[in-house]
Amino acid sequence: MEGSSGKAPLVDAAFQLLLACPAGLSRSQVSVDFKNSYDREPHPDKKLEESIEHIWNCRLAVSPSLFNGSKFRYGGFHMIDGEGDLEKPQNLCIHLGLTDYKTFVGTNLSHEWEHFLVPVEEDVTRCRHTASPLGNGAIVETADSQILLLQRSVDVGEFPGHVVFPGGHSEPDEVGIKSDASGSLSRMNNELNGKIAAEMFDGIIREVVEETGVPATYLSEPIFLGISRRVINVRPTAFFYVRCYLSSEAVFDHYNHAEHAFESTKLSAVSRDDLPHEAKKMPGCHQGGAALYTLMFTSAK
Description:
By secondary structure, the protein is of the alpha+beta class. 26% of the residues lie in helices and 28% in strands. The protein has 7 helices and 13 strands. The strands form 3 sheets. Strands 1, 2, 3, 7, 10, 11 and 12 form a 7-stranded mixed β-sheet that branches. It has a 3-stranded mixed β-sheet with strand order 4-6-5. Strands 9-8-13 form a 3-stranded antiparallel β-sheet, covered by helices on one side. The longest helix is centred in the last third of the chain and has 23 residues, at 190-212. The protein is globular. The two termini are 16 Å apart.
């Protein structure tokens, strides 16, 4: 286990690995602390803060169908040491607040995204004025040891045309959270924390099914690998390993009928041994996810 709630342990040209779990963590080892204190802090520069609404209105004028949905905001993590029992594996608690897509567009995806950063090294403080919705990504390995990659459509809002792992976001809607504009949502709730933690694992399976067309019955229980943050726009993503019990050829057949196939233009399969090398050659490929995958299998050997 590497990392802390502050400094990033590993960096490459495009991504920081905020947390790397080479052995992988199961559903029972990952919990969530959902609090208002992990929400975004407004920037003290009034003009910069007002730019969020302006950018959103400009985007709406071009794409009226845009929807400002709620998202979970990444606010750090802490490790749980198995209640002092050295025989127990370490557990992870992820800190989550609430944000929305509009604020994401106006901060992380703004051309002025760097102005929202605080000039400190500590990660959570540095990004306290950005929306930083926690995305998810799946490193899906097929029965013939191929890793699935998607080329994004040119019509999507974030990194159109780039090569990515299947993924998206865990959704607050799935656990009954619509928004918290009034600040009235009760978050000191162990039951709600449990539902959100479950949604992290359920959500990544849902994304793989929607984007590749592979039925959930052919997918394994996800294993949590870690969290990376993109250097450009400081976008955080939680990564999972998922085993697919179909061959890559069979997956291609399912892709033709994927519910969200419109979000991508091509499905590719790369040998698991070639993934780190191939990721460096592909524009926009999530090298942070490839690095987490490599760490897991290096540790397992």
